[in-house]
Fold each of these.
Amino acid sequence: MDRATLDLQYNARATVPDIAPMLSDYASLSAQARATLPCALNVAYGPHPDETLDIFPAQGKQPGPVLIYLHGGYWRLLSKDDSSFMAPTLTRAGMTVVAVNYSLAPAVTLDHIVDQTRRAVAWVHQHIEQHHGDRQRLVIAGSSAGGHLAGMVLARGWQENYGMDSTAIAGAVLLSGLYDLSPLVDTHINDWMHLSLEAARRNSPIFALPDHRPPILVSYGSNETAEFKRQSRDYLAAWQTGSGQAEYVDMPGTNHFDLVLQLNRLDSPLVQKLLKLLGLAH
């Protein structure tokens, strides 16, 4: 594809008339969750002020499986403060929810962001029992750039250096993610990401599939561009090689930005399949 075509294909904002109402929903619903649910806010997982978590313990007597949510925003927007909107539904269903904060481009590189999210997951694995979570049942979730980061958490080659048990990851929910970053080098996105082709490939989950492959759920909005859909289909197919369990969840009527809000609806196919995967089906 030429530059103009690539720019159009990877311009998620152009697929909706106005992104603002959905970003407002992220923020307002997350603020409501923080105000009304038991939670531990701004918990440090590292030394930098950006390296913090919001934790919402499972409701119930037993420690719950842990959904670790990595937000989107093309690695340059949003924060954990926009990322706990699913906590009311999922904590009632028996899950502990963790919203992860990380530094944003262009102030830091993608290598740095990936390192932060991996350290956050390792911290959760080591400490979540203090917050009513089951450290051996982690679910990595992310939307858009967060879907990419979730893929980099699933990727091989880092766990031992971070004190992380890869078998503790019980599943993943990957929404509208990017799994091969090579095409982005020639798009407007690289105006703030500053990726070389080498860095793009190094940070592409599809080139670092793990040996341990927990079940994953993959979805994208019905009106996404052909490239966003292809990226998800290619990753799903690659995951299934070597007997990895991966399921596409059709979500008609959704777009790139409101799809993730379905995680706060108990009756949504995404939540129902997630709860079934974890043995929490309602």
Amino acid sequence: MNGITIENLNVWFGDYEDRVDAVKGASFSVPKGGSFGLVGESGSGKSTILRAIMGLFDTWSGKIEVLGETLTHKRDREFYRKVQMVFQDPYASLHPRQSVDQVLSETLSLHGFKDIDARISKLLEDVGLGPAFRFRYPHQLSGGQRQRVAIARALAPEPEILLLDEPTSALDVSVQAEILNLLSDLRAERKLTYLMVSHDLAVVGHLCHDIAVMQLGKIVEVLSIEDMRALQTREDYTRTLLQASMGYELRG
């Protein structure tokens, strides 16, 4: 069974002459327990696909299937038990007046968990933060620590799927590696399915098995990470994108 199946997905904004087609006929699948990347230039539609899956847009057509269930335009609480999202900016995704304890308590309570105290301690341990961080506020945390809290919040409902929207792009390079290693370990330990958006191909190569390359709202090619590293592509656009992005990480 696939974790995520997308077939002929179209997402648009506005009507008539003001209509903008952000995603056009996108199709791909992510096997359960797999890790799949969406790459492309800014404005190519990558993050729009994640938000459509999360139910943040009503204006879409096509098929979105999660864990064997075809989604409608409404999402219930059970969906958010299965699917969670980690956003790009850890500075914006946490409420500045809520402590780490409040952030995690609120999420756990919302999803009906009772043993909240023990669960918060375990979540903090799982993301590499000790008990000393529990009652701190976002302004008392570094960017990497904030993103660890955001990951802990996403893990709180015990989801099977994480949608990762540029989860390291707002962080320093040294911290990026720590967060990527954390995400890799969590996927292995919890048998999670990842769908990740990034413009950084080295980041995608670290975490994903396969990628879809997007251009102007369309998926132009789907290829394995091995083919990406070897520049084994069918499309000129993909080859140009890879060559422009190649650094020591991709060559190594």
